[in-house]
Design a protein that fits this description.
This protein has three domains: 191 residues, Heat Shock Protein 90; 124 residues, Ribosomal Protein S5, domain 2 (2-Layer Sandwich), CATH 3.30.230.10; 164 residues, Ribosomal Protein S8, Chain: A, domain 1. The strands form five sheets. The chain has an eight-stranded mixed beta sheet. It has 616 residues and is of the alpha+beta class. Bound molecules: adenosine-5'-diphosphate (ADP) and magnesium ion. Adenosine-5'-diphosphate binds next to α2 and α4.
Length: 616
């Protein structure tokens, strides 16, 4: 029989291999950014168009490449980073396989411009689907620019497989953030479709985290530090009260490389034991330094898992370090942004004489003054809200003392809820309702009785109300005397911009959307000032995986999210009036049977059913 085995031509082999390295535009972003870091750049610019589908470009001021290297770098297994197999055990660079550029060039149009510092001229190369088109000398600044256009142009199946722009964009931002967090001393800029999303000047780690995740992040962070023989732990974790519902602010880096580790995550969660509410996630930015020969770095380039020699010890060290920091800083005041955390323990004061503390007295304070409502808590935005008991407003009034921390200042609370004593009213009302376990409302109906889930019912009522506001009628909004400033991360700001129009239909009035905060001068009448940030936080959280394309489903998502945030919760005591409002409100709805999330809102139990129970 004749021989049938053939070597695949290079461009076919490259295309196949490319599938492993380049899964989506974000993979290109990662590889190009890491190459720029390896080239010792101090300034790296990422330019992206159409979530990377049309362009991913990285410009750096690093070492650049010689004429020969510029051509060589597109060959498979062409790398300047290792020479011998033993080098694998001492790797300090991000790349080392020499696969990325060959793979990218196999499935895109790539333009490379590069120049080394002392060369007079640089090199300009165009390569398309592994084919060199041109290579010319060119006048260029020191450094390298890779522009990757039309990704997957020759693999339509892959191109079609890409997710929506929002999803691909998210992946790119994730990769950018990981590299930027691993290298705070490098200046990074990220421009998407012509607008600057991030501009992160060279800084220390804390400032880098804050620059990425908005100004309010600073007060959340508690430093962690530990040095042992096998590992150095460095970084920040968030105070428990700032935990979030999602895991978007959790980062592990090992030797400045972003990794995922369920095991180490578990170690950190163990440190927070007993400090977090159910389902809440702390933020963490943990940097581990280990000797390169104690980890198995020889992992696949796109994988973020890693194998440690001594995992158990790492677990224990990480847990106790985090626990220690939480204990130490939980009671301490918020750290100053500019202040060096090392100076926070003022040892040099130890031998000083104590001075008389200064006490500030407000001589105008009159304890009998009526005007408590306008009392300002240290400049905070919370003011007691005075509203008439409009139909729906009354639903909320009973909730305050139960759910809102800010309302539970002792002097604000009524001594005893007067409704507690209304039980003495024995008058028989036909529509009398009862609340059971602060969860269900029981109501007598003609055929027997009805049990209503208070949370789901209220969700349904609010959902229909918001949807109506957004689609049919002009929503009314209450103007705020003092505009609210709410901080968001850059991703979240991006989302808010896209949702602006839809949110304005619910009654929000946005004055300004800046790069890290929004200023709101009007809010929907159903929302109180102190609820605004909760509502918006939950909204961006609910829409993390992408905003629906059509405006109808956008409205629908917003209405659902707001209904969920603002509906009475299980465990909330309701006055009889409030119970009645829920029952009436529910049955005035178009679809009273189910919550906006398709769960039953009530069940009925007929007298027959009851009779059967008693027949036994
Ligand atoms: P690896 O990073 O694994 O070595 P790559 O395919 O990503 O493989 O890159 C191949 C080589 O091209 C690198 O080893 C490096 O020498 C060179 N190179 C790539 N990008 C740059 C850059 N931005 N600046 C200077 N040299 C670069
Ligand atoms: Mg590389």
């Amino acid at each position: 029989m004749s021989s049938i085995i053939q070597l695949l031509p290079d461009h076919v082999a490259n295309q196949i291999a490319a599938g492993e390295v380049v899964q989506r535009p974000a993979s290109v972003v990662k590889e190009l950014l890491e190459n720029a870091v390896d080239a010792k750049a101090t300034d790296i610019k990422l330019i992206v168009k159409d979530a990377g589908k049309s362009l991913v470009q990285v410009i750096d001021n690093g070492n650049g490449m010689s004429v020969t290297d510029a051509r060589m770098c597109f060959e498979r297994h062409a790398t300047s980073k290792i020479r011998h197999a033993e080098d694998l055990f001492t790797i300090h660079t991000k790349g080392f396989r020499g696969e990325a550029l060959a793979s990218i060039a196999a499935i895109a149009h790539v333009e490379l411009k590069t120049k080394q510092e002392f060369d007079e001229l640089g090199t300009h190369i165009i390569i398309e689907g592994s084919k060199f088109i041109t290579q010319d000398p060119s006048v260029l600044p020191k450094g390298t620019s890779f522009a990757v256009k039309n990704l997957f142009f020759n693999i339509p199946a892959r191109r079609n497989f890409l997710k929506s722009e929002t999803v691909e964009h998210r992946h790119i931002v994730d990769e950018f953030q990981r590299v930027a967090l691993a290298h705070p001393s490098i200046h990074f800029t990220f421009i998407h479709n012509g607008s600057e999303l991030f501009n992160l000047p060279s800084s220390n780690l804390r400032q880098r985290i804050v620059a990425i995740f908005s100004g309010k992040t600073n007060e959340k962070l508690v430093p962690v530090f530990e040095e042992t023989e096998i590992v150095q732990v460095n970084g920040f974790i968030s105070k428990p009260e700032f935990s979030k519902k999602n895991r978007s602010e959790q980062f592990f880096f090992v030797n400045n490389r972003y990794i995922k580790s369920g095991y180490l995550h578990h170690a950190l969660m163990a440190a927070y034991e007993g400090l977090l509410k159910d389902g809440m996630q702390p933020g963490y930015f943990i940097y581990l330094e280990v000797p390169p020969n104690t980890i198995d770095i020889n992992i696949h380039p796109t994988k973020t898992e890693i194998k440690f020699d001594d995992e158990h010890a790492l677990y224990a060290i990480l847990r106790s370090t985090a626990k220690h920091s939480l204990g130490q800083f939980n009671v301490a005041p918020v750290l100053d942004f500019e202040r060096d955390p090392n100076l926070d323990t003022p040892y040099h004061y130890q031998n000083k004489d104590a001075s008389t503390p200064l006490i500030q007295v407000n001589s105008n304070f009159n304890p009998f003054a009526e005007d408590k409502a306008t009392m300002n808590f240290g400049g905070s935005i919370y003011r007691e809200r005075k509203t008439e008991n409009a139909h729906w407003e009354s639903l909320y009034i009973g909730l305050k003392n139960d759910t809102k921390e800010i309302e539970s200042f002792p002097f604000e609370q009524e001594a005893v809820s007067s409704s507690l004593f209304n039980v003495t009213e024995i008058e028989e009302s036909k529509n009398r309702t009862y609340q059971i376990q602060k969860k269900y409302i029981l109501s007598s109906i003609k055929s027997g009785m009805m049990v209503i889930d208070q949370k789901r019912a209220h969700q349904r009522i609010l959902y229909e109300q918001y949807l109506k506001n957004m689609t049919v009628q002009q929503a009314s909004s209450q103007h705020l005397l003092f505009p609210l400033e709410i901080y968001f991360s850059t991703n979240e700001i991006h989302l808010m911009k896209e949702l602006k129009a839809a949110l304005e239909n619910t009654g929000f009035i946005f004055d300004v959307i800046e790069s890290d905060k929004i200023i709101i001068s009007g809010i929907p009448i159903q929302v109180t000032e102190s609820e605004v940030s909760i509502v918006l936080d939950e909204l961006v959280n609910d829409l993390q995986d992408g905003i629906p394309e059509s405006s109808f489903s956008q409205n629908d998502s917003i209405a659902k999210s707001m209904a969920r945030s603002l509906a009475v919760k299980t465990g909330t005591y309701l006055t009889e009036k409030e119970q009645e409002n829920i029952v009436n409100g529910l049955f005035a709805c178009k679809e009273p049977d189910v919550s906006p999330f398709n769960k039953p809102t009530f069940i009925t139990i007929s007298v027959d059913d009851l009779d059967k129970k008693f027949a036994i």
